[in-house]
Amino acid sequence: MRILIVDDSAVMRRIHKNTLLENGIDESSLIEAKDGEEALKIAIEEDITLFLVDWNMPRLNGLNFVKEIRGYSKYSSTPMIMITSEAAKYNVIEAIQAGVTNYVVKPIQGNILWEKIKKYL
Amino acid sequence: MKVQYINPFLQATTGLFKDYLGMDLVPEKPYINTDPTRLGDVSAIIGLAGETTGAVVLSFTRDSAIAIVSKFAQRKYAALGNEVIDGVGELVNIIAGNAKKDLHDFKIMISLPGVVTGSDYRIHWPEGIPVVCIPFKSNFGDFSVNVSMRDII
User: Fold this and answer.
1) Which residues of chain A are within 8 Å of residue B22 when distances are taken between CB atoms?
2) Interface pTM, i.e. ipTM
3) Is B78 exposed, middle or buried (0-12, 13-18, 19+ CB in 10 A)?
4) Tens of pLDDT along B94-112?
5) Between A18, A91, A107, which is nearest B74 by CB?
């Protein structure tokens, strides 16, 4: 299992990581990227089983990352959870059209996030 | 700037600090901030663009920034380091992003947050639009949410 956490905020990456570790996910399964561009490079080299992706990031944002990654046949149906502060309805629609599997609005308690994540593991 | 545009920011802030972080939070009476230097030691700024323009600034004292980000990040910080700066940026991002869902008049894009620190800085707000300051008192220290947004009409 390889979970890629993509967020430009080091604090948010650690909060997500703690949620996964507290629920028994091994640290060696977790990979972090600070923007979509870095995530894309990692995803091409690795076989990611679940993506946790923020929306607002420098260089390549989460929405464009999702669109790009869905173009790779190995990731055409890989679960991708967008975890973002973008709470407007039109944002949710745009993300789903881009190919996200699930959409979560920050802030979210770790136990509620875990309920959403565990379905895909 | 219409009063109904302030409520989404008030609610987003309350949702984040009171409901998510479990902090006692008391909003005080909003006022028009006519002094652009009247901000705390640490301010996180986010720009609004799209069908309106504007900015949101979340401003803390040094101590309240450290205490609140410690609570948010589930880690005790003692100084105003990189992670505290990162954390206050994330907090304003959450407030602006959540406020969008109740701003039905506009389709808005939010910028990446920026953070300024120090005792002598000035925010160059969008010209000709009032800046509404909502002060908050909390058991982790005081802070304010400052919003300036152009009306659509």
Assistant:
1) none
2) 0.93
3) exposed
4) 999 999 999 877 889 999 9
5) A18
